[in-house]
Amino acid sequence: MSGIRKTFGPVVALDGVDFTVADREIHGLLGGNGAGKTTLMNVLYGLYAPDAGTVSIDGSAVDIQSPKDAIAAGIGMVHQNFLQVDVFTVAENIVLGTDSTGLTAADGSPQTATQRITELSERFGLSVDPSARVADLPVGVRQRVEILKALYRGAKVLVLDEPTTNLTPQEVDDLFSSMRAIVDDGMSVVLITHKIRETMEVCDRMTVMRDGRWIATVDKADTTADDLASTMIGEVAGSDADAAALAEAAQVALGEEDLGEASLTHPLPGASEARPGGGAADPVAQPPARVTVRGLTVAGPGGKPLVDDVTLDLRPGEILGIAGVAGNGQGELAEALTGTRTASGSLTVDGDELVGRPTATWLRSGVVYVPEDRQRDGILPGAGITENLVLGSHRTRAKAGMINWRAARAEAVEAIKEFSVKTPSAATACGQLSGGNIQRVILARAFAHNPKLLLLHNPTRGLDIRSTQFVYDRVRNAAAQGCVVIVISEDLDEVLALADRVTVAYSGRLVGEFPRGEANPYDLGRLMTGVGA
Amino acid sequence: MSEFLTLTITAMVPFLFVAQGTMLSGRAGIFNVAQEGLMLLGAAVGYIISLKAGGNVVGIIAAALAGAVVGFILSWATTSLRLDQFVVGLALFFLAGGTASLLYRVVIGNDEPPRIAPLPELILGQDAMVFVALALSGFLWWWLYRTDAGMRLRSVGENPKAADSLGINVARTRMWAGTVGAALMAVGGAYLPMVFSGVYADGIVAGRGWLAIALAFFGGWRPQYILAGSAFFAAMEVLAQRAQVSGVGIPHQFVSMLPYIATLAVMVFALRWALVPQFLGKNYDRESRIVG
Fold first, then answer.
1. What is the per-residue pLDDT across A24-35, written as a single tens digit (0 to 9) for each?
2. Is the model's pTM score more than 0.80?
3. Domain limits at A411?
4. Domain's final residue, options A420, A449, A478
5. Is B152 within 8 Å of A81 when comparing Cβ atoms?
6. Is A406 in contact with A341 (CB distance < 8 Å)?
């Protein structure tokens, strides 16, 4: 691919990108969020029409107008959000769109299709049940279906977009060995990722992208995790905090290659030793719990609770990390813990019982929620930053029902400065900001409520490294001031980096508990899949 | 009793054509809401052409073509232009209904309308269209669930992005499914003057189009259950007419209400059964960056 350019309205998503994949290699496409990795691959797969640039395969130029052309050219892509028809079976999803003449054709094609699927899955270690309905399958298996879809079509180049999201460490190992088997069979693989560790672990070469531009292509042998980190960040952003964040990422990364346990005991930047209840504090001197949760349960359809009997004691300044594969009740748990979903049981903050009280009472008691879906649950996309910051405190700040907008605007301008929100003005509609800036606005609002219990759900999903570091710094700061923090995240690295104590959400319950430094990613992975709970 | 059965089978025919047409469009993701208008258009065109061009068969074909034109407009406006399906559908309801009325006035005027010949009986006191409607239901079931093309159509209504990523042309699939579906709806309308009244009138459809949408939901967007549901809807219609004419001790309005109540009950209590295509009524934009 050379000179690829793609714009969405005024936004330049790709700016003259060159990208080459060699035969039989695993090529890492590395970059922060918004670097244009996925956009580039969507151009290759015919989903986006480029404004300029050419694609050539085996030396000859090809014109790819649609996924159909891409498939014909031997390109297969596994999207981050699986493109599967939920109500179809595995076999139907794999065969869909291929030139078979109907599933019960006279020549017995259903057999051949199933046989081919079985053969491919054995050859590449991607075991699936062809007759299962995909909606009933766990994420790891659905991903295998996606890979088989591409292989079934005879892909020569397989593009995997952030494939390890939502996989347990064990599943990641399996995936990487399947990738190796695919390459050994004569194909090429492109791995889109923002995780340096993954590229160092499995890739032969990697290309780094930033802000829609090609930055570098390097052999694994010629680089280190630290080098890659600084390439990803670029020179403009060379502040100390960023370097620290990446050093941290790299340490976790390198540590895990040596099987992990030692790396997690590294002192992490920003983790204050002076934190009252955090870290390896003397168990005798522990202060009493600030937040207690007893038997918190959310009823679900069909009698199976969505959140099942959650009990926690959280000391001031403690950061609790809740890991888990998406869909194990994390969203419901987050909402139950913050009073935005009806639950039974008990939750007290500084002794005040909150379950059954209106959300305004929870908020006044210092329970603050930073939801997973920022756009949908976190902001009013059409309203300005000032309005969004006023939300939640609109009652307390109003006098005789009237809000003093002049004062609110002044505060908003302050908050924009303090939280480094990049915006033309305080009146800019929140929905027009980037994900990182939206999250900064939400955090600014959260901290304006003087939280005693701060709950963050996937707080850095989709954020670039700078915003991620910003979120981590703020969270550690809040904890240092005695706030109880709960981080629910599907990113295991994030949980391990932030939490004083780690537990795992599985099927609506919290299973296992590890203090900082004793959590091994593979032990957590087993709990995440319900093995050895 | 056998008379009741005969009447019910006849009454099933328009429901079947219109609901199966709704189902066919819907399984590809086109939610047509112009049934009432399309049926009127089909009834007017079918009546006028049978009268002037001599023959019910010609009339039915002409009605199908008229419906296809409206269906094509709907499909084109919602795929190529990505206009809102519901808004376009409502506009087409008025357009088709108005056109039907206009055609009738231009061609027939205010004279006493001549009656067209009813469809001839084939066997068991039923006309050919009864068997066509039944065969159509069976064919659609076979086609949707047993053929490759049927699977592709269903995938477009369930997850167009997945279908697109596998090289299926979403717009083209929707275009013809919407067109054929609307043609079937118009055929359902054309049946009315040919069997019941012999003439066209503006009130001839009497809400059957709206009921057909309910029937599609009632049947879980599956041809076999729509077939079963149409028998129930038709029986209620016959019963309501009887209640109105002879009085069976219950107000006919109550009987007329039952199909709606039954549909509501299905929607509320049988959620698992009442499957709805995931992308029903939703347009697909390949380059949209908003995750559907």
1. 899 998 887 667
2. no
3. 381-449
4. A449
5. no
6. no
